[in-house]
Design a protein that fits this description.
heterodimer; A: 243 residues; alpha+beta; Alpha-Beta Plaits; 2 domains; four-stranded antiparallel β-sheet; 6 helices; 13 strands; B: 208 residues; 9 helices; globular; binds iron/sulfur cluster
Chain lengths: 243, 208
């Protein structure tokens, strides 16, 4: 976690509102601020934006793998070594016109754990990853998505034990399933959403053809899930690998 | 990631909020990316993109546009915002004409984006649909605060900071536009829509 240099801090509280997860706390006794290490995600919003007028906020000593992971995942300006992609996730629908990652008859699943702006313990990310894997999602591997580097078994979504208490601003669980598994996956998410201490945002990736859209909307209707009104549309201008 | 997909706030306030992206794929179509990206940026600027940037360099509200364009690399990620549907249609038409071979993506309300593609004679390839927030929704901030924080999809903008700016606007200490720009510079990608944010801040000040 980042640290406050107590010799420099004048207790002005300028930094407090900038932290997305409210990690800056006021000391009870002296007029100083400290960083709650249980809460800080090493997102470096405070450092990057020089929010302290006297320069009292100092960078973390990222001296173990989990701290480095936490920083890379929480600070989108840092590139993840595994994926080579800056930020927490991958290219999902954005480059599907050239990569063909999601074909017809398949649905992509993008679960942004801890979003919007709540943060999450990796224990909750594990619960959700395991629930969707069991329901038929094939999870993306470490070459495309950072969370997979912590999985002991990509087939189950289980994470290494030492990762579970780490908190991050957000982390994405990515995978895909054949269309017939989509109802099971959505029902699994309906169950597991009640077992976690945070929120997630859910994106479902589909080819834009009418047949896929009809199947998707009918599935949502059957399960009582409201029809989406927002989307990220790949307009098909990339040169495709797979026609 | 899906940082432009999940935006919140009233449907009406999302109506004039679009995010554009230009994406290269490593080893597939990233040759000469810097040059192609500069052409795409020139098109977006011509169409009136109010904010755009590269996550490694910053957004144009923080960094001069020519500085971002000059410092692009093959790994750069270029994205920005439009606030009118006509801008989106024009952008898509020009990108089609330029035929750069890069992926082009637009996030927004589907009943705005899909007709825009049609107007530009484009057939969408893939859609990432937002199914919104799941889990402990009682942790979420107020709707107008969330409408602003979620415009930086990496959540670099704290709810408490938005509340502070709302207070400053309400007390007349600064204009809604100035407050919105102060928030926008915290979003390194350049997809924060400061025009929509100013409107929300102004409405919150009037309501209070
Ligand atoms: S802004 Fe700097 S000086 Fe002020 S309370 Fe925070 S750390 Fe201390
Ligand atoms: S690094 Fe991020 S989470 Fe930690 S104190 Fe700074 S702003 Fe808050």
């Amino acid at each position: 976690m980042v640290q406050i240099n107590r010799k420099l801090c004048v207790g002005c509280a300028t930094c407090i509102p900038y932290c997305p997860v409210e990690a800056f706390k006021k000391e009870a006794e002296e007029r100083k601020v400290y960083v709650d290490e249980e809460v800080c995600t090493n997102c470096y919003v405070c450092i990057r934006n020089n929010v302290c007028p006297v320069g009292a906020i100092e960078e973390s000593n990222l001296d173990n793998f989990m701290k480095q992971f936490q920083h890379v995942i929480s600070d989108p300006t840092v590139t993840s070594e595994g994926t080579g992609v800056p930020g927490r996730g991958t290219e999902e629908a954005k480059t599907n016109d050239v990569t063909g990652r999601y074909g017809r008859g398949e649905f992509g699943i993008c679960i942004d754990m801890g979003r919007p702006g709540i943060g999450c313990r990796l224990r909750d990310a594990e619960k959700v990853a395991m629930a969707v894997a069991q329901a038929g999602v094939v999870l993306e591997g470490p070459e495309t998505t950072p969370l997979a580097t912590l999985m002991t078994d990509i087939k189950t979504g289980k994470l290494v034990d030492e990762a579970l208490d780490t908190n991050v601003l957000s982390v994405i669980i990515e995978g895909k399933c054949p269309k017939e598994k989509l109802p099971d996956v959505l029902m699994a998410l309906r169950r597991v959403e009640k077992e976690i201490e945070t929120t997630f945002c859910l994106g479902i990736v589909s080819r834009a053809e009418q047949e896929e859209a009809s199947f998707f909307f009918e599935t949502l209707e059957k399960l009582g899930i409201p029809k989406p009104f927002r989307g990220k549309v790949n307009v098909g201008l990339g040169r495709p690998l797979i026609p | 990631m899906t940082h432009s997909l999940h935006r919140f706030g009233s449907i009406e306030s999302q109506r004039n909020d679009f995010v554009w992206f230009i994406y290269q794929s490593k080893g597939i179509n990233d040759a000469d990316f810097e040059e192609k990206a500069r052409r795409a940026i020139a098109i977006a600027e011509k169409c009136g993109s109010e904010n755009w940037g590269d996550i490694k360099i910053g957004c144009k509200l923080k960094c001069p546009a020519n500085e971002i364009a000059t410092n692009l690399s093959r790994q750069s990620r270029i994205r920005g915002v439009f606030t009118k549907r006509e801008q989106v249609v024009e952008f898509l038409k020009e990108m089609k004409e330029a035929d750069l071979g890069l992926s082009v993506i637009i996030s927004g309300l589907l009943d705005e984006v899909l007709p825009s593609c049609e107007e530009a004679a484009l057939t969408p390839h893939t859609i990432n649909y937002s199914l919104g927030v799941w889990g402990k929704k009682d942790l979420l901030p107020e709707e107008d605060v969330l409408a602003i924080t979620s415009m930086c999809g990496h959540h670099m903008i704290a709810a408490n900071l938005v509340r502070k700016k709302m207070e400053e606007v309400k007390k007349g200490r600064k204009s809604a536009e100035k407050a919105a720009e102060e928030l926008a510079v915290l979003c390194p990608c350049g997809i924060f829509n400061q025009v929509r944010a100013a409107r929300i801040l102004q409405e919150a000040a009037v309501k209070a």
